[in-house]
Specification:
The protein is built from 4 helices and 7 strands, in the order βααααββββββ. It is α+β, with helices and mostly antiparallel strands. It has one domain. β6 and β7 form a beta hairpin. It is globular and about 55 Å long. It starts with a strand and ends in an 11-residue tail after the last strand.
Length: 182
Amino acid sequence: MKLVKRAYRFRLYPDESQKQLIEKTLGCSRQVYNELLSLCKKEYEKDHNFKINKYELIKLLPKYKEKYPYLKEVDSIALQQTVIHLYTAYINFFRHNSDFPVFKKKKNDCGYITMSINNSIRIEGDEIQIPKIGRVKFVYHRKLPESFVYSTVSVSRIGKYYYVSLLGEEEYQEYQECSKDN
């Protein structure tokens, strides 16, 4: 049995309080990204050989939560994933695969990633349970394969619409060509 990674995206219909929590999580993720990028940028300007350590950056999160108590109100895994994204962008710069990371802007469409830990993300009918947000209505317009197991969930805003993307693995099924009996 061969497993392949797949992603499925669905439209979310959060109520007003859920929209506020999503927007707060997006804002906090952007703030953490920008604060840590600023720190990395200062270190890089001092020493162009400055290397970043992902785990050292993640260890800074509790200090930021003490400094900014509202960071405790959002999904901590989303903040950790933001740090990992910054780390990846920074490493890609040093590998000459991209430019130096840039600061995130509020006006741009954005999203955050969280992970399913202890069944914290689950689909129940026409609702999906998302950590810290709760049960959110969504359009379940296609059935997921029974072999699909999701591990990562991305919540995003594009314009005024919200989406959820489920990333996971499912069994690979080869499609056989139809043979013509002539």
